[in-house]
Amino acid sequence: MKRQGLTLAAALVIAGPAFAAGEINLYSSRHYDTDEALYANFTEQTGITVNRIEDKADVLIERIKSEGELSPADVLLTVDVTRIHRADEAGILQPLDSEVVNEVVPASLRDESGHWTGVSSRARIIFYDKEDVTEPPQTYEELADPKYKGMVCTRSSSNVYMLGLLASVIEHAGEETAKAWATGLKDNLAREPQGGDTDQLRAIISGECDIVVSNHYYFARGFRKEVSGLTDGLDKLGYVFPNQGDRGTHVNISGAGIAAHSPNEDNARAFIEYLLTADAQKMLADGNDEFPVAEGVSASPAVQDMGDFKRDSIQIAEFAPSSATAQEIYNEIGYK
Asked: What is the pLDDT of residue 229?
């Protein structure tokens, strides 16, 4: 479908709220409570109703594939680059065809072919027990150093953030080096991989683990609001933005794309462009402590307090294809 003139979301930035009849069907693997306000604000500004179907990204991808040309899906929203890339590889996304995306989102945080874009980003960083660890790892590579044997805890190898991290190591250093690193990391585990990122942070507070890897916002959230088992023990946690002396800290995205057979294509595009407006970016930042992708929008106070850091400059789409290889490596070495 060809468009004429400004998209709805671009018009909103210039002229303020406008109303358009219709709806979008959003297939989302995001599970953050603060997104409710984000979608309500979009409806208030545009009159477009947001119908949501929420599930794990792989389930949603398979659902869209099975629905085929009759799929009601308009927008797919994922919490990581590997899944939005997988959706594109499956042929269930179409070109965004959006000047707003090209102007607002840095090239490193969107698809070069224009089929998806990041709408927020997150850093995967190292946390440690300040009382027990006097020399914390300063790089991802150091997590595999034998001096940390029995001290490290992580999520399971099938977790998208674990896959993304290993995929980035593959892209930077090659498969053999990545395999050796993953093996060393496995040898240093204090327990079998389990739980979510908040559980990793809680494990430091409880004394079960000394060093963990987590997305930055799970830590920041504990300052912004009461998180059971975390907030009261935050003073015990130190953190490191890894690899500041070389490639920089690994960054992932929450990604969005328009479904290939979207029945509400213009509204779908307007929704994605809305997510990139200053108001929506600020809601993502303040409501969930994610990093905005749009320049000029500040992070939440809790995230700002964590300090600035050097980000990995790799084009985020470059490591996404290596996620399958990452899983093969984890499986081969017996990383649960």
From this structure: 95
CA angle 324, 216, 38 (to 5 degrees): 90
For residues 248 and 141, the answer to whether their CB atoms sit within 8 Å is no
Q: 32 and 295 in contact (C-beta within 8 Å)?
A: no
Residue 44's pLDDT is 95
| Distance from C-alpha of 237 to C-alpha of 222, rounded to nearest angstrom | 11
Confidence band of 313 (pLDDT split at 50, 70, 90)? confident
CB-based contacts of 302: which residues, under 8 Å, 6+ apart? 220, 221, 223, 224, 289
Looking at this protein, which amino acid is placed at residue 291? F
CB 75 within 8 A of CB 260: no
Beta-strand ranges (E) seen in the chain are 23-28, 49-54, 75-78, 93-94, 117-129, 152-153, 211-215, 237-240, 251-259, 291-292
Q: Estimate to the nearest angstrom the gap between the alpha carbon of 160 and the chain centroid.
A: 9
Cβ atoms of 230 and 222 within 8 Å: the answer is yes
Q: Show the tokens assigned to 44.
A: 């208030």
Distance CA 1, CA 166 (A): 39
Q: How many angstroms separate the CA atoms of 277 and 198, rounded?
A: 29
Task: Count CB neighbours of 112 within 10 A.
Answer: 10
Q: What is the pLDDT at residue 304? A: 96
The predicted pLDDT at position 32 comes to 82
